[in-house]
Write a structure and sequence with these properties.
The structure holds 2 protein chains of 2 kinds.
Chain A: E1 14-16, E2 33-35, H1 37-40, E3 45-50, H2 57-68, H3 71-76, E4 81-86, H4 90-99, E5 109-113, H5 118-123, E6 128-130, E7 138-140, E8 143-148, E9 151-157, H6 169-175
Parallel strand pairs in A: 3-4, 4-5
Antiparallel strand pairs in A: 1-2, 3-8, 6-7, 8-9
Chain B: E1 14-17, E2 37-40, H1 41-48, E3 55-60, H2 67-73, H3 75-79, H4 81-86, E4 90-97, H5 101-115, E5 126-131, H6 136-140, E6 144-146, E7 154-156, E8 159-164, E9 170-175, H7 186-190
Parallel strand pairs in B: 3-4, 4-5
Antiparallel strand pairs in B: 1-2, 1-5, 3-8, 6-7, 8-9
């Protein structure tokens, strides 16, 4: 399992649909692009937070808003980007971000796809959740990380789908 | 095994869904998700078998919120709900994909809000947005596509299927082999009803 000081994995290509005003409607989408972490992370402070799935009740109602409502605080603390991860495809993540009210062409918060939870799996077994019995397949678990110049400075996973202070934005803001 | 028109629809097919209520959908939040429940097609066929609208239309798309299906494929069904029920004798319209039930529910509610004009006193088919988990049902009948190259895994193909709830016979099957909605769009699927 990865811990503080370790290098954050960069060898999984993530995908996302950048927000543009032309596709402001939730059911409208443009094409996905690749998010290359080996280009994003060097020299930057990046916050990651992962959810079980787009449009699932606990993460939609409680988890993500703690980040989206505190974008200005993360910026003040010197965070360059926030990356939200789920195993949902980029179209679903894009719709979800807009449904959550995040519509900013700056794309400071990126809603990205972790394909088959590969990136999450590289962080450790407790960063993925097998929800096949519920018809949801293998998912990234709920977790949060602060990565400074490619190195992990904070990394906490929730037990199952719980949402506690471990992945709450305020815990990360305290550490920054 | 591939389906042919005239075949019996198989037993024990189950999708998962979060029910959508057309009467309250205009005020429902796309973010307020309930818990998904199984959708047993055997039960649905039984319920519709002896009604005046025994046709069950299944429309499959590779993905919720993807450009083609959102913009061209599903909206014509939703703008013709009254005609589907009264002229085409459709008792249930089921939109499926391999996305999970939460995603389909959010997508369904948004599409219905945007496209359908439903009134409280109107007579419409049941409208169901359901997950074919891991595209298992579709794959078992040669109706899936492998979108792994785009990081999307195995998906349900784009197709339209009509089942007569009483006889359980497949009345129509149209699968797209190229981009577009020529065989699975509203016009093609309802032309024989």
């Amino acid at each position: 399992m990865s811990s503080s000081g370790d290098t954050f994995p960069t060898d999984v290509k993530l995908q996302y649909v950048p927000y543009t005003k032309e596709h402001a409607e939730i059911v409208s989408s443009s094409k996905p692009v690749t998010l290359n972490l080996s280009e994003l992370l060097p020299g930057k402070t990046v916050v990651f937070t992962s959810a079980i799935g787009a449009f699932t009740p606990p993460c939609t109602e409680n988890h993500l808003p703690t980040y989206l409502n505190n974008v200005s605080k993360f910026k003040k603390k010197g965070v360059d980007r926030i990356v939200v991860l789920t195993i949902n495809d980029p179209f679903v993540n894009s719709a979800w971000s807009k449904a959550l009210g995040y519509k900013d062409e700056e794309n400071y918060v990126i809603f990205a796809t972790d394909p088959k939870a590969e990136l999450s799996g590289k962080l450790g077994d407790n960063f993925v959740a097998d929800l096949s019995s519920e018809g949801l397949g293998t998912r990234s678990s709920r977790y949060a990380a602060i990565v400074d110049d490619g190195h992990i400075v904070y990394l906490e996973s929730e037990d199952g789908g719980a949402f506690t202070e471990r992945s709450h934005a305020s815990s990360l803001l305290e550490r920054l | 095994m591939s389906f042919q028109e005239g075949d019996q629809f198989p037993k024990d097919v189950t999708f998962t869904h979060v029910p959508i209520d057309l009467a309250t959908v205009q005020t429902a939040s796309a973010l307020a998700c309930e818990i998904p429940t199984p959708l047993k097609l055997d039960k649905l066929f039984d319920q519709l078998a002896d009604t005046s609208s025994p046709n069950v239309v299944i429309v499959s798309v590779p993905g919720a919120f993807t450009p083609t299906c959102t913009e061209n494929h599903i909206p014509p069904y939703l703008t013709h709900l009254a005609a589907l029920k009264n002229d085409k004798k459709v008792g249930a319209l089921i939109i499926i994909s391999a996305n999970d039930a939460f995603v389909l529910n959010a997508w369904g509610k948004l599409l219905i809000k945007n496209e359908a004009s439903v009134s409280a006193s109107g007579d419409y088919p049941r409208v169901i947005f359901a997950s074919d988990p891991a595209a298992k049902f579709s794959a078992a009948h040669d109706l899936s596509v492998d979108a792994s190259a785009n990081g999307m895994g195995i998906r349900t193909a784009r197709y339209g299927l009509v089942v007569d709830a009483k006889s359980r016979k497949i009345k129509y099957l149209g699968k797209e082999v190229e981009r577009g909605v020529k065989h699975s769009g509203y016009e093609a699927v309802t032309s024989k009803l």
